[in-house]
Amino acid sequence: MKLYTDKYNPFTLRVLVADRLAGTAVGVQHVQKDEAVKRFPFLKEPKLPFLEVEHNRHIFSPNAICRYLLSCDASKKFTSDLNNLSIGDHWLEWDVLHLQPSVFSFLVASFSPGSSGEANLVTECLAYLESALKPGAKYIVGDELSLTDVVVWGTLYPLLVQQSHQKGLDLNAKYSKVMAWFNNLMQKDEFSSISQIITEGKGPESFKDALVAYQLVNPVASTRKDSNKSEAIADNAESDEISYKKSQVNEQEVNDSVTAWNTQKVPKRRVLEHPILPKDGEKNILITSALPYVNNVPHLGNIIGCVLSADVFAR
Question: Which residue numbers delimit the GST C-terminal domain (predicted)?
């Protein structure tokens, strides 16, 4: 197996930690983003790292790479969330959808002199993780190191390892269980040594160019956009509900239909005037026919099949 990545890539952290823990001894080849696209035309964008499992078999998601490598561990130590997909997938999706955009955009902003990132979403994520950790717990899932720990640590490492990027977070006071969990992992050689290798001793500052280059979406902007979108959807849903209630058949109409059926007195058919448009003050019901289907030569049955039912219903 071979891992293709570029230097100072924050996502490579978790992958190489998983490799070290599983003992898979993955080969690492550094490539430039443009070079990666040329060599691998299936890459629509220069997204690194990715793992070449074997010829023409690749894994592109860093979290999926970690899962695959840990599943290759001969001792089968990492089973607490690999075997329980509902738990493992929950944390992996939370990492991708919430933790990564919040932390990385916060870091990108904090790298700029005199500015600080939007802390609200970061603190929400940290509070969620704090609530999930049991008092004195060393790991997020169960009593053993797991895929979840590797993935979440990989995202939080640039934020938690250096205080200069923690403006306004007050980590030790508010998130003591998170910090205890993080410090416990940093005491393990697999985590501390890999972080030194990837950053070459430069700390999280080494990830600055990579994070900016990835152009990670500002979570505050996307959240506001999603909020507005949700409000619009709610308004449309309410409008649809009102329209649906207005279109429902009332009790009087049901009784009239029963009487007409029993007495064979069919209501006089309304003369249609073209163009046929909805009329104010009346219940307007649109009845359409099915799409015609013709397998070979069109014939009368095709017309009957698509329009007869609608015509009968309308009459």
Answer: 81-220
Q: Which structural domains are found in the chain, ordered by start?
A: 2-72 (3.40.30.10), 82-217 (1.20.1050.10)
Helices 147-160, 10-22: axis angle to 10 degrees equals 140
- Please tell me the pTM assigned to this model: 0.65
Taking only the tens place, the pLDDT of each residue in 182-235 is 999 999 998 988 888 888 877 777 787 777 766 543 344 444 444 455 455 555
Give how far Cα 181 sits from Cα of 67, 139, 143, 276, Å.
Answer: 20, 6, 12, 70
Give me the DSSP letters along 223-275.
Answer: HHHHHHHHHHHHHHHHHHHHHHHHHS--HHHHHHHHHHHHHT-PPPPPPP-SS
In the numeric block, the tokens 């690194």 are attached to: 48
- Secondary structure (3-state) at 58: strand
> φ and ψ at 30, to 5 degrees?
-85, 130
Q: How confident is the model at residue 35 (pLDDT cuts 50, 70, 90)?
A: confident
